[in-house]
Amino acid sequence: MQFTTTARLAAWLLAAAVLPLTLAGCDQSQQSGGPPAPTVTVANPVQRTVVDQDEYVGRFVAVNSVEIRARLSGYLAEIHFQDGQMVKKGDLLFTIDRRPFEIALEQMRANLAQARANLAFTEGDLARGQQLLGNKTITEQTYDQRMQAKRVAEASVAAQEAMLHAAELDLNEYSELRSPIDGRIGDRRVSVGNLVNGGFGGNSTLLATIVSVDPIRFEFTFDEASYLRYQRFAGASTQMASGQGGVPVTLRLIDEPDFQHTGRMDFVDNVIDRSSGTIRGRAVFANPGAIFTPGMFGRVRVPGSPSYTALLVPDAAIGTEQARKFVLVVDDGGVARQKYVTLGQLDDGLRVVKDGLAPGDRVIVKGLMRARSGTKVAVEAQGTPAASAPPQQADQVKAD
After folding, report:
1. How far is CA 66 from CA 99, 179, 180, in A?
2. Closest CA to 280 of 260, 263, 300
3. Residue 237 pLDDT > 60, yes or no?
4. 75-85: b (≥16 Cβ within 10 Å) or e
């Protein structure tokens, strides 16, 4: 019993000694004013002259595309190219068996010689008849018949000369099929030894196809509202609609990080499609390395506005509140304030701010998650904001 009383007395003395220390700690915490203000980094918006860019998906098409078909029927004798190779205008591609056309040419030459011999005879007969007519040896009717025979002989010579020319074309031109353009040829559709149907109808045999490579066109469609906007900022020259002047555009392929290919608009269609409400545009690009292929997809950037001076901030400085975007700025009293902004495109890694921001605002570019609107912050540094997004993200986000 005596031990228990002693223990209680010791515990009471210990609590009496600790209580003043605890109260002193609480007084010091209250005097310090709570946790320190969060540290943030601020910077003024970058001012830069920019042009709004609209992006569209489209497909490459060849400037020239030719189907190689024979004008003559015959057996295919030779093929003078490798599938898929580049060919030049005038290169020999196919040869049809020339022997039947050589025989036809010899026959036309013989027919022409016969017609010329007949013409010479009728000319001599007419000359003799003219003398006999003067002597009243023959009648005028007989003379007229000889005159008619000469005219028929002349017409026969002209006809045979035309047929000879046609036979020469068949042998020297049409039996050898040459490339009409520079470009890349596809695979052969007919092997040597097969019968080729010639002619000018739809039943002629398709032998191969050739598409031009350099330059190449890129076709895409855009909506009616964009078309009206382009027309208005293009002015009275109507460069966008007519293709005159060539509006510069940039392009990237699906595996490329940025828009590194440059070209020019050369055509906009003259009607808007009723079913889709879109109009077709076309740009032309140089393709010396033949990297672009007809049918390939790509993304094209078209200038969507005149140039203007804009404010830009890093994407990391932009917050989201439901459907609205905002930035936090630090006022002269060191208090963070929320400003709602209207965003535009990315330009060299910085986001264009179209409305809601002033050039002199100190925007929080680092520490946005630590700061709250209406609270004091500690400013750590101030400078020009750096790009926070690579160029390839330009096609991922397009603010309204």
Report:
1. 28, 9, 8
2. 300
3. no
4. ebbebebeeee
Which residues, 6+ apart, have CB-to-CB distance to 162 below 8 Å?
none
Longest dimension (CA), the chain: 186
Angle at 224 between CA 223 and CA 229, to 5 degrees: 105
One-letter amino acid at 81 equals: F
pLDDT digits (tens, 9 = 90+) for 88-126: 999 999 999 999 999 999 999 999 999 999 999 998 888
**Around Cβ 27, how many Cβ atoms within 10 Å?**
9
Count CB atoms within 10 A of the CB of residue 189.
Answer: 14
Q: Would you tell me how many other CB atoms lie within 10 Å of the CB of residue 200? A: 8
Asked if residues 365 and 316 have their Cβ atoms less than 8 Å apart, the reply is yes
Rounded to whole angstroms, the Cα distance separating 396 from 117 reads 83
| Of 203, 253, 217, 261, nearest in space to 61 by CA | 217
pTM score: 0.69
Which SS3 state, helix, strand or coil, does residue 290 take?
coil
Which residues lie below 8 Å from residue 294, measured CB to CB, with a gap of 6+?
60, 61, 62, 65, 211, 216
Q: 170-225: per-residue pLDDT in tens?
A: 999 899 999 999 999 999 999 999 999 988 877 889 999 999 999 999 999 999 98
- C-alpha distances (whole Å) from 299 to each of 9, 219, 283, 396 are 86, 10, 12, 12
**Angle formed at CA 116 by CA 114 and CA 119, multiple of 5 degrees:** 110
